[in-house]
Fold this protein.
Amino acid sequence: QLGQDHWYETQIRGKKVKNFKRRMALFPEQAGELTIAPFVHHVTLTDEGDDWFDHDVQSEPLTINVEPAPQTVGWWFPVKRLQVSDDWSNAPDQLQEGAGVLRVIRITAVGASPDMIPPMPDLTSPSAMIFPHPEQRLVELSPHGPVSIAFWRWTIKPGRSRSAILEPLSFDYFDTTTRQAHTATISAQRVAMEQTELPEPTSAPAPAPQRPSLM
């Protein structure tokens, strides 16, 4: 249910009639002709003698045609609007000695339920130390449908080389407005110690003097 019920009054044959609207988000689980059954609202009314009685109000059934989803190899992720942000607790390439950095990727999907967002991927690197955190998901209601948010979090430290490259991340999604498939790509990132924190390079020994020789 998207938001609160909206109550209002109209007149039918000179009498006031109470009405209410309820906005629902429904997600079909299969393609083809589907019928949405009536929604029943149980209310309690009073008659002319001021006695209470139960009464049911129901909507009309609705039949719709659901098109089949395109054939996809990976996770099926239909979404009305998608927003991806990549945030860091501090500059990832200016870390102090022995420090790590927290990376948070936020996925905001309009028109999708939280379970429709792809699972948190594995963040990989040839040399960095990566510690994943539990994934967090929540949902907010809006007039345009549910707004689902997922947080993917990792703590990352450079390896012995003091500098490491994190591999890019990507996932597929289907834009339900344009009805086109897309790939969201989160670019690679360098994680490194700050230059001032790196030890000075050791100086190479001076070459031994060479004796002159006869040609």
Notes: The two ends are 97 Å apart (CA to CA). Confidence is low (pLDDT under 50) at residues 196-215.
